[in-house]
Design brief:
The complex is a heterodimer of chains A (321) and B (305). With 321 residues, chain A is mainly alpha-helical. Chain A is built from 16 helices and 2 strands. Chain B folds into 2 domains: 2-52; 71-301, MetI-like (MetI-like fold, Orthogonal Bundle). Classes of the chains: A mainly alpha (321), B mainly alpha (305). The interface between A and B is large, with 91 and 94 residues.
Chain lengths: 321, 305
């Protein structure tokens, strides 16, 4: 019995590990390719060799092992007192380093990667703060106040969650164009601020706040705004955290609408920048993967730090109907 | 007599409503900013899309009423038929596969200790937080004919290299395989959360009845997870019918119409050809399809209740 239990556990770990490798392999490949040597002077072949386009593919950034090898040789030469050899290996080491990071360098120097990163970051922050404020206000009164039209408004908002966002693409395009907002960041921020999922999420969350606390604040003479700001918002913090993270992630990754309304390279967000980068450098995979790596890192960090809130947010929106 | 009483009642209730509205003016103020944005950027565009779909859109002159011309064009066009077929195949293959594998993965993870649970959950959710743009770019690279990772890996098994994205008979399947191999992170997390809320007493009772682990999984876990299964199936079907990013970045809908999908077609019609009326009609059809499928799935998956 006990032995079988152990075998089961082993098989479970084995299956999950294989699946985890498949899951993480593409991300690994992004980083590995972004750091791969691209025009390295190979000693045996005596010509510049691209290890990015290698057959068979190199499974890790080859610069790491090349660097260590030359570092060892340089040290040996130093011991033997061969200054010329040592200088040669030190030089190779520095070309390896600059070649390894050349993709990132050209992204920031020849393309406007820094600008795209900044645009994505500030639009994400502006929209997230706006959504948290607007949706918690709306969710609060929809959950806790009784007033004529409340149910109508709630169902109106909820029913549009069923409609795929692509339906509004064409009218929104015409509207943004006629408002003169084409090729501006307003064209992204305003539609993002009108997303309704957060209203639903905040309302569900606010329902669990006890009425007594709100009543007590009223009896103490607190204004409506003060009650919301000092009592309701602090209690809604877990819900706000979840909503904030998902909003930021959605805005950071949003793609279809931004490629329609943005035309100037300096206004691009990261996903739009990556698409134009690919359109212009179809086969330069080191450059493309360097861009992908830069866009991926922030979300990976956000996820690893706020993992708990991701789980919370998903279960808030999903399980409880 | 009765009628006038009714009028009186109606008048009074209107007065009451007015009074309540004044009393609750703060509630309306709290809602106002969101309602304005919602009206401008969701409600009006939705209605507008329906109206546009019955019009011939012209840039200079005013629009003309076109009746159902746009809809006729939608259903007569080969591109739309191909897009509908491709999107359907893509959905029918990937959605069940992803939901079932998420269920299995969550069940396996659930049986482990806390540390292993956190580790695998993170490993399977990480690709979901990464933008599809990034995923699509790296898969295009891995599918590369000459230097791609996949042609190297299938070489280990003695297979000839495949031009994955470049030929008509494999391109759609390359996109499908990619979707199958990206773990359904949302599904795994939701299933795990639901599993931990299943009462232990059910399992204890089954143990007393002599059920083994697999029987318990089949007869208790899966039925108890039905609400999650319904939700996840709906969610991923809706998402699947909107597949776009992979298409524009990996194949552009080609070769020919081999990987054309509904949303990519809407994008092309609207913003490459600027046929706004036709694109609006296509998007209304997409909405109707998604709506019908959602209702059907909800009914079928919930029928045991």
């Amino acid at each position: 019995m006990k032995k079988r239990f152990k075998v089961n556990k082993l098989i479970t770990y084995l299956l999950l590990s294989v699946a985890a490798v498949i899951s993480l392999l593409p991300l690994y490949w992004v980083f590995s390719t972004s750091l791969q040597l691209k025009s390295f002077q190979d000693e045996e072949l005596e010509r510049p060799t691209s290890y990015v386009n290698a057959n068979p593919p190199k499974m890790y950034p080859i610069g790491i092992s090349e660097y260590l090898e030359h570092w060892g040789k340089a040290r040996d030469a130093e011991k033997a007192g061969d200054a010329e050899q040592e200088a040669y290996h030190r030089e190779v080491m520095s070309t390896i380093v600059s070649d390894t990071f050349s993709g990132f360098k050209s992204l920031f120097q020849k393309n406007q990667m820094g600008m795209w990163f900044f645009n994505s970051l500030y639009i994400g922050i502006v929209v997230t703060i706006g959504i948290l404020l607007l949706d918690s206000m709306a969710g609060y009164v929809l959950a806790k106040k009784r007033f004529p039209g409340r149910n109508l408004i709630f169902w109106l908002i909820i029913s549009t969650m069923m409609i795929p966002s692509q339906v509004t693409l064409v009218p929104m395009f015409i509207m943004i164009r006629d408002l003169g907002l084409m090729d501006t960041h307003w064209a992204l921020i305003l539609p993002d601020l009108s997303m309704v999922f957060g209203v639903f999420l905040m309302r569900q969350f606010m329902l669990s706040i006890p009425d007594e606390l709100i009543e007590a604040a009223k009896i103490d003479g607190a204004s409506e705004w003060k009650t919301y700001w000092k009592i309701v918002l602090p209690l809604a913090r877990p819900g706000l955290a979840a909503l904030g993270i998902f909003t930021f992630m959605n805005v950071w990754n949003s793609f279809l609408w931004p490629i329609i309304v943005l035309n100037s390279a300096k206004l691009y967000t990261l996903p739009v920048g990556l698409k134009t980068l690919q359109d212009a450098n179809l086969a330069d995979f080191k450059l493309l993967m360097s861009g992908a790596a830069i866009a991926a890192i922030p979300m990976i960090i956000v996820f690893l730090i706020f993992q708990r809130h991701f789980v919370k947010g998903l279960t808030l929106g999903g399980v409880k109907e | 007599m009765q009628l006038s009483a009714r009028f009186k009642n109606a008048g009074e209730s209107l007065k009451r409503t007015g009074k309540q509205m004044r009393k609750n003016y703060a509630a309306y103020l709290f809602l106002l900013p969101k309602l304005i944005l919602f009206t401008l950027f969701i409600a009006i565009p939705v209605v507008w899309a329906f109206l546009l779909s019955f019009q011939e859109y012209r840039i200079v002159e005013s629009n003309t009423f076109a009746g159902i011309d746009n809809y006729m064009k939608v259903f007569e066009s080969e591109a739309f038929r191909e897009a509908l077929v491709n999107t359907t195949i893509y959905t029918v293959v990937t959605v069940p596969f992803n939901v079932i594998t998420a269920l299995i993965a969550a069940s396996l993870i659930h049986s482990l200790g806390k540390f292993a649970q956190n580790f695998f959950r993170a490993a399977f959710y990480l690709p979901t937080v990464t933008s599809m743009v990034i995923i699509a770019m790296v898969w295009r690279w891995m599918y590369n004919y000459e230097f791609g990772l996949f042609n190297h890996v299938i070489g280990w098994f003695g297979m000839e290299p495949i031009n994955w994205l470049g030929q008509t008979d494999s391109a759609l399947w390359a996109i499908i395989i990619m979707q199958m191999l990206i773990p359904f992170g949302v599904g795994i997390i939701l299933y795990m959360a639901s599993m931990s809320s299943i009462s232990d007493s059910l399992y204890e009772a089954a143990t007393i009845d002599g059920a083994n682990a697999f029987q318990k999984w089949l007869k208790i876990t899966i039925p108890m997870l039905t609400p999650s299964t319904v939700y996840l199936t709906l969610l991923s079907t809706i998402g699947s019918f909107q597949v776009f990013t992979q298409i524009i970045l990996m194949t552009g809908g080609g070769p020919g119409y081999a990987t054309e999908t509904l949303v990519h077609l809407i994008y092309k019609t609207g913003f490459r050809d600027f046929e706004f009326g036709l694109a609006a009609a296509q998007s209304v059809v997409l909405f109707v399809i998604i709506f019908i499928i959602s209702v059907l799935q909800y009914k079928v998956l919930n029928r045991n209740k």
